[in-house]
Design brief:
Layout: H1 11-22, H2 34-42, E1 53-57, H3 62-75, E2 80-83, E3 95-97, E4 100-101, H4 104-117, H5 125-139, E5 144-148, E6 166-169, H6 177-180, H7 184-191, E7 201-203, H8 215-225, E8 230-232, E9 237-242, E10 245-250, E11 253-258, H9 265-280, H10 289-298, E12 306-307, E13 319-323, H11 329-345, E14 350-354, H12 362-366, E15 375-379, H13 390-401, E16 405-409, H14 412-422, E17 427-432, H15 435-444
Parallel strand pairs: 1-5, 1-6, 2-5, 6-7, 7-8, 13-17, 14-15, 14-17, 15-16
Antiparallel strand pairs: 2-3, 3-4, 9-10, 10-11, 12-13
Helix pairs in contact: 1-4, 3-9, 3-10, 7-8
């Protein structure tokens, strides 16, 4: 939990969010679930009164998979609840009730209720908000709940669902290693904690390195011990783009779909994982092919290779501004491939505005991208003290950025202002490195949520 998470345009609600955050006096992550389980029992166990659940874990892409599931299921006419994290601009984004973000008034009502009626001692902010989200999901009528893991899986406080309809595991990468383990097999074992007895699990594409190849046997062993059917990318299904269409190969058949409305080849795979999850759930929640096509085109997910309105940022139409919240090695790889694709289709210089928390792997993130960049502006992040500094950047990634024009600014606004005065032709600006930076950028862009990637 970060200070930026607690900002809210509603001053009263912001004060109540801050009060919840201050309740926790111990570590930032609570691996002792005793108090959390006690809270759920005192609330009447709302997690046992939910609509059918798709439970989604992973490092990269789990939010996009949820977005695809939501768009398709809503196109079919289902009332869809969704729980995602973190948010970009305000905490309401985390809880969607029958297709709409939770209102300020209902969120405040739930906070008042949980604060007055239940013991919250030594509970983390995420545990409290997850419990009140379960209360909302169990109260407001809905046909399905899309539940995104906060971190890891095995010990995550969303992992109290005994019988999910389907579980999904997106690409696994290094992140939160202080909690999940240093190696990818260790991290995979934590993610696999959401796999449940007898329930199908869809696994998205993983990386191709020797260490990443060890992910599959870890997941397969855990799934086997729990009698869970595993649908693994590359073995049981594949999804790729070809001649302006998306092709899903599964069970000996190829199905053609429109390309998804989110930018990047990785989103084709995320869309495929969502469709596979829906196929696994077809008996309980049938979905027509036309709803899949509608949902693929209609999907929106802010802060993930999102094309922003250049004019709203004071830039000319000759400048494309793209926003992404990626911050690890896998995200760097995805962004590098997109920059290469831009270079093939419509070449322009690419300048990176980077804002990243200080403990993240800046070398791993920049390594795939650096050869394709013309410049880099390092920026601070609003309300964050532990941000990547210029000396640390040069220490950890000096060889990668040695040939680039590297500058440092306090804020992304200042970086954009400096670039505005220097740009003398068409170019692309990519802003990336942190979810919290992405939220700050969207705050600068009036109506930014309407500027979706793929449009």
């Amino acid at each position: 939990m970060h200070t930026a998470d607690l900002r809210h345009p509603n001053a009263t609600l912001q004060q109540k969010l801050q009060a919840l955050y201050r309740l926790r006096t111990g570590s930032k992550v609570n691996w002792d679930s005793t108090a959390y389980q006690s809270l759920l029992r005192s609330m009447g166990e709302p997690h046992r009164r939910l609509p059918p659940v798709f439970h989604v874990a992973g490092t990269n892409g789990k939010g996009s998979i949820v977005a695809f599931l939501r768009a398709i299921l809503e196109a079919q006419g289902y009332r869809v609840h969704a729980y995602t994290s973190p948010h970009l601009q305000r905490v309401n984004e985390r809880i969607r009730l029958a297709g709409e973000e939770i209102s300020d008034s209902y969120l405040e009502e739930l906070i008042d209720e949980i604060s007055a009626q239940h013991s919250l001692e030594n509970l983390s902010f995420f545990e409290i908000t997850t419990a009140l989200a379960f209360r909302a999901f169990s109260t407001v009528p809905g046909d399905v709940l899309l539940l995104e893991v906060g971190m890891g899986g095995r010990l995550d406080c969303t992992n109290v669902i005994d019988d999910p309809l389907v579980t999904v595991i997106s690409r696994i990468s290094r992140d939160h290693t202080e909690f999940l383990g240093e190696t990818l097999p260790e991290i995979a074992a934590e993610k696999a904690g959401i796999i449940k007895k007898g329930r199908p699990c869809v696994v998205s594409a993983q990386g191709k390195s020797e260490e990443e190849a060890q992910i599959f046997p870890v997941l397969e062993k855990i799934a086997s011990t729990r009698g869970a059917e595993l649908h693994f990318y590359g073995r049981d299904w594949m999804c790729y783009g070809e001649e302006g269409r998306m092709i899903l190969s599964h069970d000996g058949k190829k199905t053609l779909y429109p390309l998804p409305g989110l930018t990047g080849d990785h989103q084709i795979i995320n869309a495929g994982a969502a469709i596979m999850a829906l196929r696994c759930a077809a008996e309980r929640l049938p979905v027509e092919e036309r709803s899949i096509e509608t949902g693929l085109k209609a999907v929106r997910w802010s802060g993930r290779l999102q094309l922003l309105d250049s004019a709203a940022l004071g830039l000319t139409e000759r400048v494309e501004v793209w926003l992404d919240s990626g911050h690890n090695d896998s995200a760097g790889d995805v962004l590098a491939r997109q920059i290469q694709k831009w270079a093939e289709d419509d070449p322009m210089p690419v300048h990176l505005i980077l804002g990243m928390l200080g403990h993240k792997d800046v070398h791993g993130f920049l390594s795939p991208m650096a050869p394709f960049l013309t410049g880099l502006s390092l920026v601070g992040i609003d309300d964050e003290k532990n941000v990547l500094s210029l000396p640390v950047l040069l220490e950890k990634a000096g060889s990668l950025v040695r040939t680039l024009d590297v500058q440092s600014f306090e804020t992304v606004r200042e970086a954009l202002g400096a670039l505005r005065s220097r740009i003398d032709g068409p170019c692309r600006i990519l802003i990336a490195g942190s979810v919290y930076l992405a939220g700050s950028v969207l705050d600068l862009t009036t109506g930014s949520k309407d500027f979706s990637s793929g449009v």
